[in-house]
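DOMAIN: structural biology
WANTED: fold as tokens
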Amino acid sequence: MAQKRRRGFKAPANYEPGRKPKGGRGRGPHAQGRAADGDAPDERRGSERRGSDRRETERRGRPDVHARPDRVARPERAKRPDRPAGERSGGGERARVFAFDEQGAPKGRERQGASASRLPAKRTTAADAAAASFAGLGLGGNIVRTLAEQGADRPFPIQVATIPDALAGRDVLGRARTGSGKTIAFGAALVERLLRLKAEGRFGEEQRPARQGKPKRGERVERAPRRQARNPKALILAPTRELALQIDRTVQPIARSVGFFTAQFVGGVPIEPQVHALSRGVDIVIGTPGRVQDLVNRRKLDLREVLVTVIDEADHMCELGFLEPVQRVLRQTERGGQRLLFSATLDGQVSELVEEFLRKPAVHEAEDGATGDVSHRVYVVLREDKDRALVELVSRPGRIMVFCRTRAYAERLSEAFVDAGLSATALHGDLSQARRERNLERFASGKAAILVATDVAARGIHVDDVDLVLQADPPDEPKAYVHRAGRTGRAGSDGEVVTVIARTRQKRTREMLQEAGIEPEFFGDYVPEGAVGVQRAGWIPGETPREDRGRGRG
């Protein structure tokens, strides 16, 4: 028999060199001889070891050199009948089995939701919402009064479609364009739903310390224990800081009118004030996935009592790479809780959220509510004349938003507008959170007529009466174009969208507009005042191109 391979040996702590071990615990013929001299305990232990070795060798199919001939092998135990996978031995209850295929997708597990692309959507038009009112949708008097103070007298189609199902406790999937009133739709429904859950006793009993009488003079009284802060009962996730802050501005008055408190949890600001707010108690958490997950990891935020969760702009959140953080956050909320998901489009990653977290959702698609007439124009400008063209296009009365692709270009263009004598401000990721809020407030209050922003700011900025959306850098996909154009034409007012492109992007821009279903009123050349580029035949520098001249030159 081949000699066994030697292995490393580590002496125990109580090892003494030269001391013989007590008793015969060895294997082989020497151990059998010592056992025959009358060492009964060692014989019993040796036989147990040899029996275990024999069973091990029989299992492996090798002969046992230490087997005793006087021992009769025990009969093999009957095998248990095979049970189906996932069945427990104690009863018929099925356990959760997690298995994955070669692509990493779960298999053998029952999914609660259905594919988002296969869910039929109920479309609500402006005619359906004409005779509706917030009180008729089921909202309370305080909430209706607060909405009227904010200027929302009558509901929009998306609000008429989603509020009744949200109040009934169903999961809701709402599809509507930017600026259609989604914030009030889920904000008012969320607050009213929490009121009903509190009346049903779902919040639990708050433990308050017993009141003690007035102590006598000279009597020493122990301080009452501090009451444990209440955990949040609702969560609203937004992709950007600006959108989260604007959601809080809309939801906070509605929540305060019925006694609920909200708090903002976004990145870019110190975390200590947010921790302090959690220690005092918060009912509705509004924040971005990154900061919410950070607070959960620090064990400062407990999401186990969250009953209602809202995900706003889910498609943009997946585009920014927040799909996995959102999944981790939702898995920490109460299992079986209500989920409201609002998105302009249903892409593949949004479908993953729907399939995992929404249970038989009520799908609604609303018509654009109270939108005005928006005209679309595309100007082809030479590279050396682009800055002059942009300054000339924004030198007009009204409120203007300019979108750029990079942060550096947004900052440079904002400085160029200021040098030209225009009141402009910038909004991009390189600015601190305090400066971003200050610049956005300047634009919303009218102190700055021009806001130069990146694509991150294209989502969630709700500023009324934007007259012109100027795209200094054309978007790469039709979805981004739609969200940029959604900044104008709100609340029934008219607007204009102008896109400035180079001559090499004409084909791509036409394909993008065709895919987005937009027919521009004009698509042609534009020559600004004092152009240094090559002058085109038949053009007068500084004259805005007319449709009859520009048509066919794209």
Observations:
- The two ends are 89 Å apart (CA to CA).
- The domain at 374-550 is CATH 3.40.50.300 (Rossmann fold).
- The chain has 17 helices and 17 strands.
- The CA atoms of residues 127 and 495 lie 23 Å apart.
